[in-house]
Write a structure and sequence with these properties.
Length: 174
């Protein structure tokens, strides 16, 4: 994680001041942010939160900006593709925070409901593809000879494997 100005302040020091990095912020499985039971309705704030998601060495998700970081409860994938575009080198996923991520077709997978996921950042971050992103990739989606879904780019078919846990990008084909 990149450093912030408050990294030198321990959780114990914050507690002595009556402060905490713990929050009631939640990223739900659909990619929506909540503060408690209230949705974060401001699009700019939600986009900022989406850009600020990082993961600690212990695997816990945080929202980190230049000044501080706070803990976040991520109930599904930490990254969400709100759109996609097809380029000469393949597909680019447009993430909720405005960042872009090349689609790694070999990481595509689907859950039992047919929701598509891929891996991003260093390869260990699950990305949930929202319906608009899938529709924008439609011209690259097909079926193999067995009727299973595939992603075709550059004439190469990439299987879209069915997995029990789409948040775990390391699962083998079912």
């Amino acid at each position: 994680m990149r450093p912030t100005k408050s990294d030198h302040v321990s959780d114990a020091d914050l507690a002595r001041l009556g402060l905490s990095r713990e929050t009631d912020l939640v990223l739900d499985p659909e990619g929506n942010f909540f503060s408690g039971d209230q949705p974060v309705a401001h699009a700019g704030i939600a986009a900022g939160f989406a850009r600020w998601i990082e993961r600690t060495d212990a695997g816990r998700y945080v929202l980190r900006n230049d000044l501080h970081y706070v803990y976040l409860d991520v109930q599904g994938a930490p990254l969400h593709a709100r759109g996609a575009r097809i380029g000469t080198e393949g597909a680019i996923l447009e993430l909720s925070g405005g960042d872009e991520e090349p689609l790694r077709p070999e990481t595509l997978r689907r859950d039992s409901a047919g929701v598509l996921y891929a891996s991003g950042r260093d390869g260990s971050w699950p990305i949930r593809l929202r319906p608009r992103a899938v529709l924008e990739l439609e011209s690259l989606l097909s079926e193999d000879s067995a009727g299973e879904p595939v992603f075709v780019v550059g004439g190469v078919e990439h299987s879209i494997r069915l997995v029990e846990d789409p948040l775990d990008g390391s699962q083998e084909r079912k």
